[in-house]
Design brief:
Elements: H1 2-5, E1 9-12, E2 19-22, H2 32-45, E3 47-50, H3 57-65, E4 87-90, H4 104-109, E5 128-135, E6 143-147, H5 148-153, H6 157-163, E7 167-170, H7 172-177, E8 197-200, E9 202-204, E10 211-213, E11 220-223, H8 228-242, E12 248-251, E13 258-262, E14 266-270, E15 281-287, E16 294-295
Parallel strand pairs: 2-3
Antiparallel strand pairs: 1-2, 3-13, 4-15, 5-13, 5-15, 6-12, 6-14, 7-8, 7-11, 9-10, 9-16
Bound molecules: N-oxalylglycine (OGA) and manganese (II) ion (MN).
Amino acid sequence: MIEGDKHIRATPLHPKIGGKLDGIDLRENISDEVREEIHEHWMRFMVLVFPNQAISDEQHIAFGRKFGELEVHPSVAHRSSRNKEIYRVSNVDEADEIIPEETTSWQYLNLTWLWHTDSSFRQIPSLGSILHGIETTRSGGNTLFANLCESYDALSDSKKSEIQDLWVIHDHDYILSLSPELSKIPEKGDYTPMPQVRHPLVRIHPVTQRKSLFISPHTMVGIEGMSEKDGRGLLDELIEHATQEKFVYKHQWQNDDIVMWDNRCTMHCVEPYDNTTTRRIMHRVTIVGEEKPIPG
Ligand code: OGA
Ligand code: MN
């Protein structure tokens, strides 16, 4: 693949976030040199799109492992039965049927429509995720990615000092309380129990050294030392600021796109689509974080 190394082409997809990489075949075992080149583009663009990559789950896992160890998600229902590292973000089950809307796994899936970063409920949240669009949608079902370094930089100096040393409480089960259906039932599905964790509201990226907001509306219960109302108010204000169009790339999926994002400086959500009739099958591997978020 030495020849190929010279042919990687990067094209920005948005002024602030996202780049497309052509000229790489992810079915092959990439060299360390190509891995380094991809990593450099990744750190610059935060979100990378690799079009036309018809890879198997095993090749997907092998590519993910080039960037670190892979997570096993706490939701048993969403894991592939063949590879525990594959998290199925899909409204179609392994028997190829659309999941009925009264099931907990369908309801859980709808929570990806809310802004979040992956695994923010962990002590050491995920470093990054790699998603393979296997069966993608034409109407709705795009994925939005927000650059949280840019939104931090754009805050006023007084807002930056107000949020400087704040810590946010994150809880996996908060996700469930946001679901109209799951919040009402005692049996919410089969999960490995996860205790609450605290993360800094402002973090420093270990590679680029840039400061960013660390917000994940999925799991944020409140701000330490603040009343519920004040904490919620500040978090909602920051979420609204961070999700303005100027900080957001919207990815319109084609089958066999691979999208790779950095969870340390971005958040994402799925645009609603009719998931009672439209099939959408995405497979994800999630790279384990290397350290706790560094307070900024
Ligand atoms: C994810 C997720 C994005 C999508 O895989 O982490 O939130 O497009 N889904 O399904
Ligand atoms: Mn996600």
